[in-house]
Each structure stands twice: as structure tokens, then as C-alpha cells.
Design brief:
heterodimer; A: alpha+beta; 8-stranded antiparallel sheet; 4 helices; 8 strands; B: alpha/beta; 5 strands
Amino acid sequence: MDSSYIIPFVNSVESVFETMLQLPVKVGEPVMKRSGDPAYDVSGIIGMSGDVEGSVVLSFPTTTAERVVSLFTGMELAHTHEDFPDAIGELINMITGGAKAKFTGKDVNISCPSVVVGSDHVVFGRKDVVCILIPCESDCGDFCVEISIRKQSGGAADAQASTDAATGQAS
Amino acid sequence: MKVLLVDDSKTMRNIQKGILTQLGYTDIEEACDGLDALSKVGAFQPDLLLVDWNMPNMDGLTFVKQFRAKGSKAPIIMVTTEAEKSRVVEAIKAGVNNYVVKPFTPDSLSQRIKETLDRTAAA
């Protein structure tokens, strides 16, 4: 995957948490997500379409998600509360919207977010698109952003090329 | 001063409501999408609207166009994650008076609200 797609997400995560929650986030080195990586309990998922297509996932352990939502909304909301998914959805909406604005010269649309709440779930993206995991640390706990996007092409060759680029292999 | 908040996120509406209340504006109506907003503007007659862009059923841009087509002149602030220049231009052409990109601080939103109302009063 083109690294120019990753940096905007790193910047956007930092910006959203700092601006809306006054919560500094330490972003770790992005890595390829592999099967067997730890699964989380709360995920906000959003789709991208247009010149760049795929999905972006914001995932937390339950306790971290509840602390984050508490800071965001200004009230204690358990993960079972009806308004809890709305807050998670708005966070991934702002993160993805902020990132896509930096995709210079690309016309990209984002979907309305979906939210999954359930212990140890795994979100599977498209098999033909590499998933990059951005680990994040905060005073509320660790969480991550998973980015599974590529330039719109529809061609299998482009998908293979993006996989090879991410894994350092030559085509 | 009657304010209509149009956003599919209840969290975001609550945040905006808190900021408006601190500014002294408490006559606030809420709508969860463009269609809901269109159904409420007739009876509520807002003096200011804060409108999100990406919403289900009817997006904010479509709402703004239909609201303006009715001849309504109340100022509209678009509050959205859509930060590209082309989107801002599109919104202004549709009839939006001011633009706030999410994420925002309470101060920045307050400033835009005051600025928008001052401009409207001066016009």
C-alpha cells in the first residue's frame, strides 16, 4: 500500500483525539495485520469509495472504548448503552474524513459508519487488499486503526502490486 | 434565536448543543438527517442552522439546496469532516454561509457561529 495513504490517518487520529477529547495519542509504527493478531471488542467501521476504495476500522478493548466515549461525550456510557455506538461511529467518521482530505487530487467518498460491539471479534477486509494496522497508545488504553484501502482500479495486477509493495516483494 | 442542528450523530448534536447553550442559545431543535430537517424547518423557522454533510436518507448538501429553493435565507453553517477545497466551494455555491471542519474545538465553533451571525446582522 502506498505510504501516502497511511500518513494522513496517523495525523488524523492524533488530531481527532487531541482536538475532541484533549487526549494525546502516541502512534506506533504501522505494520501489516496478520491472522492471529489480537482481536478487540469494539470496532467502528467505515467504507471508502471513489478514487480510493476499501475500509477503515477503529478498534478498542471495551474498557478503553468506554473511557474514550466518556471523554468524548462528557458522560459515562457503558458499551451496552444505546448511544455508545454513535460516539464510536462519529470518531471513525472524523478520522477517515480528516485523512481523505489529504488525498490530494483524489475524489473519495466515505460511507456512514457501522459499529460492532462484541468480545474478541475480528473484522475481515477484502482478501485482495493489504490491511495495515496502526497501533495507538493513550492514557485511556491501547487501541488501533486498521486501514485496508487501495487506489481504485478494479485490476488484479494493481492489487498484487500493492500487496508486493507492502510486503517488500518484487512483482 | 432558534437554532436547528442537523446531524445523524446524537453525540455530535449534544456537543454542538452544549456549545450553543454556553453562548446563550437554548431554543434548539434537532434533526437526524436532511429529510427530518426539511420536515421541521416549516414549523420551527430556524434563525441559524448547523448542518452535517454525510447523513443517511438525505445528505446535508441536498438539504441545503432544497432549503434555499424554498426561499429560506437563514444562515447555514456546514459542520462536517469534508475538508477538501472543492467540497467547501460546492457547499458555498449551494447556499452555505460558513464552514467548520470536524474535529473542532468549542472555541473554533463558537467563533464561526458569532462570525456568521454578525455577518448576517450586518447584511
